[in-house]
Each structure stands twice: as C-alpha cells, then as structure tokens.
Amino acid sequence: MSVKPTKIVQSLKPYVPGEQPQDGGFIKLNTNENPYPPAPEVIEAFRQAMPERLRLYPDPLCVELRTLLVERHKGSVSQIFVGNGSDEVLRLLFQAYLGAGDAVAMVNPTYSLYPVIAAQLGVRTKIFELGPDGEMPDFPALSSFKVFIIASPNPPYGTFYPEETLERLIKSAPSTLFIIDEAYVDFASGDATALVARYSNVVICRSYSKAFSLAGVRLGYAFGTEDIIENLFKLKDSYNVDYLSQTLGCAAVRAQAYYAGLAVRIREDRAFLTTELRRLGFKVYDSQGNFIFAENGDGGALYESLKKKMILVRYFDTPRLRTGVRITIGTRKELEALLKALRDK
Ligand SMILES: Cc1ncc(COP(=O)(O)O)c(C=O)c1O
What we know:
Number of helices: 12
Bound molecules: pyridoxal-5'-phosphate
Largest sheet: 7 strands, mixed
CATH class of the largest domain: Alpha Beta
Shape: globular
Oligomer: single chain
Structural class: alpha/beta
CATH topology of the largest domain: Aspartate Aminotransferase, domain 2
Strand order of the largest sheet: 2-8-7-6-5-3-4
Order of helices and strands: HEHHEHEHEEHEHEEHHHEEHEEH
Number of domains: 2
Helix content: 25-40%
CATH superfamily of the largest domain: Type I PLP-dependent aspartate aminotransferase-like (Major domain)
C-alpha cells in the first residue's frame, strides 16, 4: 500500500508553466522571456566564473548582490532578500504571512501561480474581478484579508497600476500585507518602490527573468521593511541562491545602461505589435509589460494555428482568458513573422 501524502497535496493540481520545447525551431513568444542576450558584462562574468568555486557553498546571505541592489532602491541591505527566482520569494512571503485558514486577496486575471501557492499552503483565496480593460474594481474592506497580492504590470493584460492607486489601497488596510509583484516593471512608466519607505505593510518583488534576460539562472528579490525581510531569511533554504546566479546577478546590476536600452526597444516593439494587431481586428489591452494580450474570440484555435506554424504563444483555458492569447514581445523580426502568420491564415 502506498503512503498517502497530506490532504492538501491530495487535493492539488500541479502548476502548469508555459511550454519549454527543448528541440528549438519555434519562435517562442509564450513565457515572457527577453529575446535579447544578457549584457556583455554578464557574459564575460559567466566566462570568468571560477570553476574551483563550484566546490564551495555560495554566500548564504548574498551580501554583494544585496549591496548592489540596494543602491537602486535607497534603503539598507537588510531590506533586500534574494531568492531562487521571484517565484521562491513569493512562496516564502506567503509562507511567512499566511497559515491554514487565513485568506489572501487577489484579482482575476493575474499571474496564475498565486492561487497555486495559496492552495499548497491550505490558504483561502478571495478573487476580485478586474474591470473590462484590466482596471481595479471597487474593493470592499481589504482589512479582512491577511495579504493582498497584485502584479503591476499585471499579466496577462499588462495593466500598470500607478503608485497613487496602490497607495489608496494600502492606506485603507494598514494591517494587511500588500505584496506588489513588479516582475515586469522595467517595461512600465513608473514603479511603486517609494511606498516601502512610507508604509510598513508593503513589500515589492522583482525578477531577473524579464528585463535582465536571466530566466535561466533563477533570480529574484524582495524589497521591504527590515521586519518583513528578516522573516524571509528565517524560512529560506541555507543556500537558496547558487554561486553562478549571484555572480551573474551582480554583473547584471552593474550593466543598467545596457538593460535600459533593451527595455526601450521592447516598449517600441510593444507599441508596434499593438497597433498592427488592432489593425487586424484584435482587441489588444494597453500593456506596460513585455507582452500583450490579444483577443479575437477563440484563443484556443489561435494558439493551435500558430503552433502549426512553429510560433508559440500562451493560451489560458479559463472563462475570462480563453477568448485570446498572451504574446511575448520578441524581436521585431519575430513579431513580423507572427503578423505574417496571422495575415496568411
Ligand atoms: C507576475 C510574475 N511574477 C513572477 C514571475 C516569476 O518570475 P521568476 O522567473 O523570477 O520566478 C512571473 C513569471 O512569468 C510573473 O509573470
């Protein structure tokens, strides 16, 4: 007889990430990776990485990387926590602040991992539907929720919520922790990090997978009050960020100018794709991420027809999202190939 896992595990369905075909050949516009390589400094740091260091454990506290990161955010090193991708950071935040029976509030649609992490912890999820164009609804008292999580820009529509909008919510519920997931913020017109200095119930999460072209090494971080960050340190694995990730992460922070250039290009190409898809009759949401959501009524058929032409986009089979697909902003050449495939249909 096999040993049964916990009731929670029995009830879970695994999170389904976007396809990662290992055989190449696809134009890959499905998981919001950056189409451009990491900065030359990062590639050089990779080449220079010392094989003899692989024998040793990495710095468990990621001090060099946290010191570099804090310069971006005007705080102290003890306000930064680095994780194995922002997914790990999000998971640890949930684990630190939510126990079985607690409730986390979030919007729909959003990053589909949030309800999965909540379910893994036996945490109740309260979902608020976004408006027809991704706008925030009128929330009831958020103070009845232990945690509110929102991404800004929020996938898959890409809606950006300005600091004032978030601040209004934060003020209305001082005993609720607000997790603001800024995985895509480098492609947006602003950010919400200033709120950390003003409110003790805010934490910001950032990812290296999008703007920094480093999805392959798994690196993300949180910026919040010293208290919040200390709680994450209590829960993390001893060596949660490996030596190579820390080394490349440091090189990437030092190469801001290169990445700022990539973000400009991606924003321009996002505007190009949005205009062209609207011309073809799609509803395209105003996005501030490195992706757009395009609707033509039948996302499933659109996904399948593009896949046959070796173009991968992301389809979510949920009531709200099955009318369209999410498309990552690739290179201009990739986007032109996508538009050609759509026109030739
Ligand atoms: C909103 C959002 N947050 C976080 C992540 C995960 O980022 P990471 O690769 O750093 O774990 C994603 C990935 O797609 C995302 O869409």
